Predict the structure.
Amino acid sequence: MCVAFSPDGKRLVGGSTDNAVHVTDAATGKEIHLLRGHTGAIRSVAVSPDGKLLASASQDNTVRLWDAERGKEVLSLKGHGDLVLSVAFSPDGRRLASSSADGVVKVWDVTRLDRP
């Protein structure tokens, strides 16, 4: 349903209807990580400008942040009243915006997270 390249172009991140985020080596096509935690289809993915965090937006009304290197969930962001349609990092990587079918855009401060 959605794809995004890492800033260095080495990884391709995709979200699908299997409720998972797939991280693939862009050169070989080999899957690096299969990230599970959502209970709904993935509508949008984003990679932070430094390439250390992944974000996924889901039909389960949540946004999840993932450690890109370890393939582990960092945080589940809740607060939308309907499916989350899109996520995007700010150019400096300090904020993450999410939009939802509830008509709300949220801006999350990701500087307070324990960064990988």
Observations:
- The two ends are 27 Å apart (CA to CA).
- Residues 2-109 form a domain with the Methylamine Dehydrogenase; Chain H fold (CATH 2.130.10.10).
